[in-house]
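Today's session is about reading a structure prediction critically. Students often jump straight to the picture, but the first step is always the sequence itself: look for stretches that repeat, for charged clusters, for runs of hydrophobic residues. Only then move on to the predicted structure, which in these notes is written as discrete structure tokens rather than atom positions. Here is the chain we will use throughout the hour.
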Amino acid sequence: MCAILPVWLVLGNGSLPRIASSFYRVLLLTLLAGALTGCGRVPPLPGDTGELVVLTLNGPTTYFLGADDEAMGFEHDLVTAFAHQQGWTVRFVVVDSLDSLHARLARGEAHIAAAALSPLVEKIGGVRTGPVYERLRQWLVCGAQVTPIPRSAADLGGLRVEVVGGSAGAQWAQNLRPASLGRGIRHMEEATPGELLERVSHGLSDCTVSDERNLAIERNYLTGLDSVFEVAEPQHLAWLVSPRLESGFTQRLQRFFGKAESAGLVAQLRERYFGHVSRLAEVDVLSILRLRTERLPALKAHFHLAERKTGIDWRLLAALAYQESQWDPHARSFTSVRGIMMLTEQTAEHLGVEDRTDPRESILGGARYLQELRAALPEAVAEPDRTWLALASYNIGSGHLEDAMRLARKQGKDPHKWKDLKEVLPLLSNPRIAAGLPHGYARGAEARALTENVRIYYDILQRYEPLQSQGTSWLKRLLKP
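Below is the predicted structure for this chain, in token form.
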């Protein structure tokens, strides 16, 4: 049968002739793709080989390569945990569009698809869905150049609106009356949500549809994005399951997600990847992007040296330095901390830093200090929480951090998890509570803010700056699930 089908159908890669809408293109493709099960590479059942084959999309909320080119991401870690529980290994297959993902899964070329997916194609081509594990709001996002700001779909006349083909945004657009379409809504078949937000930010289109999580992440890199109204009910996210798998596989998924939620695994992964992405002020985004070209180049050699000496990713050190001083060697505070890494006189003396305003000395000293703080934490503190707790300790000192860990334990929280500890840090400034602590009052809310800001700045620098010492960074093992 494959020989007599048109080439564009066999490919299933977004090169279809244009028809009425992206949604119906997905419908046609997936219905016909069921006939092609024998044409593609159909993997054996995971129970037969011990390998789970997973289709996914590249992106900050799904699957991407981190330090040392190691795969990571919310969906990556969640799938890996599921496979580990079953005693399987995982092979991820990154595809270039939702259309391709839906079609290839319907053909049985993988066991599941995991990519922050809305179950739009359930029962099309036999595809099923696993349990819903997330609900995200969907926003129409417009650029600063759009005036007046649209308040409903009826205001879209004349605007250039782009949506990811096959997405929840595409389904919303399909339901709009033609009079609301303005210049026409373009279905971008191989674009990612981040790419469309970038086009809006740069004025290449006027508006797009984005879920709240992608929007929060991209706002830390892009400016001029305004979420103007919700386009539909919150989007339910679930994995899609191949029609070749029996219902018992879906039952495995249900048991896994039930245990993952009750054990706190899903919450832990949310914290790891999204707990720090609440939006920076737009002035902060503009500032770090500007100073990255104005001040950072003269300091890179010192950060690279500090990475070689300590094994700490230089971009994390640079993010900490930006938070502390905006990369100003002569910065100082009212408490007399000084230099790029804002070291106290006592800490500088301990580290052997003679001149805190010397960039090389300050950066090397700050790197060694962060290294000491990480090493001093209890062995039970795993990464990446170990690094986030060390950053908080950099701000308030190890004694006050120990007080916060005591408070967390007293409240029934896990003192070794940043997700729990950051909830109690602000209590260190409560006079009634501080009076009963061994180390007394501390500006715990400031330590929490520093840590969350550094995490965001680190994300920004990872996007634009390469890792210096391939293979030496402790982040390779830091970010493993």
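Discussion point for the tutorial: The first strand starts at residue 51 and ends at 57.
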